Amino acid sequence: MIAQEALASLSKSFEGKIEGKTEFRGETTCTIAASDLREIARFCRDELSFDYLLDITSIDNFGEEPRFEIAYELYSMALAAHLRLKLKVSEEVGAVDTVSDIWPTANWHEREIYDMMGIKFNDHPDLRRILMWDGYPFFPLRKEFPLEGLPSEMPDVAFTKVTPMEGGPFVTRPSIATSKDREPRARPPEL
Amino acid sequence: MSLPVRSIHLCLSVAGFRLRRKCALLLFAVPEILPAAYDSKIEGNVIFTRFDAALNWVRKNSLWPMPMGLACCAIELMATAASRFDIARFGAEVMRFSPRQCDVMIVAGTVTYKMALAVKRIYEQMPEPKWVIAMGACASTGGMYRSYAVLQGIDQLLPVDVYISGCPPRPEALLAGLMKLQEKISRERSFRNQKPELFEKIEEALI
Predict the structure, then answer these.
(1) A26: domain CATH number?
(2) Which of residues 168-187 of A touch B (CB under 8 A)?
(3) For B174, what's the count of Cα atoms within 13 Å in the CB-facing half-sphere?
(4) Span A17-36, mean pLDDT?
């Protein structure tokens, strides 16, 4: 089976369930509904030989509805082909089915998304924070969370303070200028 | 003027208490108010000095580091310990990976909030007397990491004795920092400050 056949087979088997299909530089992206994820993921692994889950990422489209987007990057060793599955999650639902039993590597990827973005994964075997500590009250990669952080107080666990950003490297300020001009080392201090 | 035997025993027991693993060293504590005097019978076997000076000399030349390597500074710390720079020249080559046997914690690298708790716990497990070296920009101030995840300087949690600039600092800079710490230790008056009653008692006994 070559990659085109596999992707055609995917479209045929899940006709109506694949909401959109785009191709860019030889990589195919399929948009699916969150409810169909496990079924399609299992088919991709078992029937189409997408045996390697490269990464799971999440996107915060703040201000849009549904707010969150999750992308699964699949790779097939046999076909040497990439496949990207994308689905959207609203803030009210805030949860997707886990694929950690289909690709075990998803375990920690999903924990990272939960930690940074606050999206939960149904039936995940071990859904704890992975980078921040247990009990940290915020989800740092959400758009409304400031880079300098928010103060938190957790007796015997941890604490955070707001980081001083003034004059820091790589700290840009919002304006219509280009990022090169917003970068502090490139601008005079009054800007 | 020779020292009364009773007071010599008292001084030796004080010395033995603090000299845990160090060399077998015969020490006589002489308060500053007494003039140094030599007895020809024991001259050559006895060193007259202030107790704090002897204690500091022992401490500063055998600083066992706790290598708290958290980021790239730890690579420079390893280089400092290796043959080219050889931290053993300053008596600090015995990197202990147990805090119970350490004298100085070298915080080498970026301290995240999550790791800060572990750093603090390890510091608290170290026995007194203990010192802290903040090695590099990150450990000193947070460095380039102006971020929600990074503690902006380990001095927000621990009392730091020496800050070393650099990103990361050269091994020479770490050695310079270690020598600064040795200077600082040699100026300490820990015996007088920590045990003032005992100090007075010895003084009385000697006078």
Answers:
(1) 3.30.460.80
(2) 168-171
(3) 35
(4) 89
Other C-beta atoms lying within 10 Å of the C-beta of residue B160: 18
* Residue A150 C-alpha, separation from nearest chain B C-alpha, in angstroms: 7
Angstrom distance (rounded) from CA A94 to CA A117:
10
Measured from the Cβ of residue A80, the count of other Cβ atoms closer than 10 Å reads 9
pLDDT at B202: 80
Same domain, yes or no: A71 and A155: no
Count of residues in chain A: 191
Shared domain for A61 and A137, answered yes or no, is: yes
Q: Chain B: nearest CA to A57, how far in angstroms?
A: 20
Q: Which domain holds residue A152?
A: 146-191
Burial class (CB in 10 A: 0-12, 13-18, 19+), B145: buried
Window from A69-78, B40-49, B60-69, B131-140 with minimum mean pLDDT: B40-49
In terms of domains, do A27 and A94 share one?
yes
Contact B25, B200 (CB under 8 A): no
The sign one gets for the Cα dihedral A47, A49, A52, A54 is negative
Q: Which of B145, B147, B152 to mutate to test the interface with A (most CBs of A within 10 A)?
A: B147
Q: Which two tokens stand for residue A183?
A: 């970068």
- In total, how many domains does chain A have? 2
Q: Which of A140, A168, A171 sits opposite B148 (nearest CB)?
A: A140
Indicate the DSSP class of residue B89. G
A107 and A13 in one domain?
Answer: yes
Give pTM, 2 decimals.
0.76
- Asked if A163 and B114 come within 8 Å (Cβ–Cβ), the reply is no
A140 interaction partners in chain B (CB closer than 8 Å):
148-149
User: For B142-198, what is each residue's pLDDT tens digit?
Assistant: 888 888 889 999 998 899 999 999 999 999 999 999 999 999 999 988 877 877 888
Among the partner-chain residues B113, B117, B146, the one whose CB lies closest to the CB of A171 is B146
What's the mean pLDDT when you consider all of chain A? 86
